[in-house]
Specification:
By secondary structure, the protein is mainly beta. The protein has one helix and eight strands. Strands 3-2-5-6-8-7-1-4 form an eight-stranded mixed sheet, with no helix packed on it. The protein is elongated and about 85 Å long.
Length: 135
């Protein structure tokens, strides 16, 4: 076989091999679904979660209430989450995602907790905590 025949054979073989593969073969989390569970004693309003490729609004959740699952493109075991409690902002602020892997395919719950603190003359400040549950 000459060089042209070898190249044609290899090209055809690679084309057939790739045509039989799933287009998302390198997508590690094809179907990741995330819901929010309010595990605090406060009503969480205007819940917004920032995932690597998108921001998703989860609305308002009363204490012990959970949201519906929402499909997301990519997610880590934690995320930037913002909410309001009694008109005050509550935030979970990740430092970075260095060393983190994307979640595998599946359903997950971001279980939220609220920590509050106040000074003598300052209004209450709220902070969110998160525990990941795989469902």
């Amino acid at each position: 076989m000459n060089l042209k025949s070898n190249l044609l054979f290899i090209s055809t073989f690679l084309f057939i091999l790739m045509a039989g593969c799933d287009a998302n073969i390198f997508d590690s989390n094809k179907d990741v679904q995330i819901r929010i569970q309010n595990s605090s004693e406060y009503t969480l309003e205007n819940i917004r979660v920032s995932f690597p490729d998108e921001e998703v609004s989860y609305g308002t959740l009363d204490p012990a209430q959970g949201s519906d699952y929402r499909k997301v493109n990519k997610a880590y075991r934690y995320a930037y989450i913002e909410s309001e409690i009694d008109g005050e902002k509550a935030v979970l602020q990740p430092i970075d995602y260095v060393g983190e892997d994307f979640l595998d395919e599946g359903k997950y719950t971001y279980q939220l907790f609220v920590y509050g603190e106040s000074g003598q003359s300052e209004p209450m400040r709220y902070y969110l905590g998160l525990e990941l549950k795989k469902n």
